[in-house]
Amino acid sequence: MDRTVFVIADHAVSWGESVLGLLALAVLGLLLLAISFHRAARERSLEAAAAAERQRELDEKMAEVARIQSEMTGRVQTLNEVFGARQADLVRLFAERLDTLQARVGDGLQQNVKQTVENLSRLNERLAVIDAAQQRLTDLTGQVLTLKDVLSNKQARGAFGQGRMEAIVRDALPSNAYTFQATLSNGRRPDCVIHLPGDERPLVVDAKFPLEGFTAFREAKGDDDRRLAATRIRADVGLHIRDIAEKYLLPGETQDIAVLFVPAESLFADLQEHFEDVVQRAHKARVLVVSPSLLTMAIQVMQAIVRDARMREQAHQIQAEVGKLLDDVRRMRDRVGKLDVHFRQAQDDVGQVVISADKVLKRSERIGAMEFQGSADAPPAQDSLPDPLGRSAAE
User: Fold this and answer.
1) Does residue 121 register a pLDDT over 60?
2) Phi and psi dihedrals of 129, rounded to 5?
3) DSSP secondary-structure letter at 251?
4) What's the total number of domains in the chain?
5) CA 345, CA 349: separation in Å to the nearest integer?
6) DSSP H/E element including 106
7) Domain range spanning residue 226?
8) String of DSSP letters for 13-66
9) Residue 180's domain is classified under what CATH number?
10) How far is CA 172 from CA 94, 168, 169, in A?
11) pLDDT grade, residue 18 (50/70/90)?
């Protein structure tokens, strides 16, 4: 045990000292562990005491709430008993008036619901048609990215553009909202005119569009060929815009703008990207150039306008019925006010009757408590009787 194990600062540490040091460290660790356990137990006890205190406060608050609730229940029951009898007639009157009013409102609402269901069914049909048309347009978009092979001549190109335009218009609008190949006052026949609600002037849509210049512009191999093709495009599109403005923009007969339909998204993209001056010229001439997607969006906006116009018509009818309903409610309110005045007058009269009955009862009690003078065998003289009202015999 006295054998030196290691040396610390010129001090030789033996095995016994090492064992004692380890035991001291173990005791110190156990002491620290016991202190931590004691602190944890004390904290848990404090938390349990705080929880018990909170639970006690909560129980007291719940008891107070229960007491207040019981008091309110008693008061409400008393009020119900007080006003129950007086409300019977008023409830009956209200029930009769509400039954009549409910019958009228029910009939009106049933009719409106029927019309709304019919409109929604037609709207669902139109939406289904629009979805089918959009699906067809999506399929066609992938097939007409280039028109070189499909539209080899002007007649086929015109028929294709007019067919796409008619499909978009026919699938989105009701039959009475558009006319194909209508004749204007100047004898011109545009591809399509759209009738907007609230305005007798139709919107003209033209589906003709030059293609040769765009084909040459795409196939140009040099800058000179590209400039020549661009010049041809500006001339052809400018001529077409001028023709639409002169033939179809009739003051007082047609709308102030006309629509030029481009049957391919690629052509519309080239026109917007490379020929901004042509687009500005079209805007100045009040001609709106649209692609199939833009025409579809515009037609959907027009469809919403038509639907809103129909809804406004239905709203006017509903507003008229609501006005009649408000008149009935005002009359019922006036009659209820009159009934309330009658109830108050009757209550005042009953109060006066109760006061009179109390006075008669008191006088009767005073009469019964009077003591008469004289012999018990002989009746008292008539003139010696005191007047119950306190008047003398001489009076």
Assistant:
1) yes
2) -65, -40
3) T
4) 1
5) 6
6) helix 15-143
7) 145-309
8) EEHHHHHHHHHHHHHHHHHHHHHHHHHHHHHHHHHHHHHHHHHHHHHHHHHHHH
9) 3.40.1350
10) 50, 6, 5
11) confident
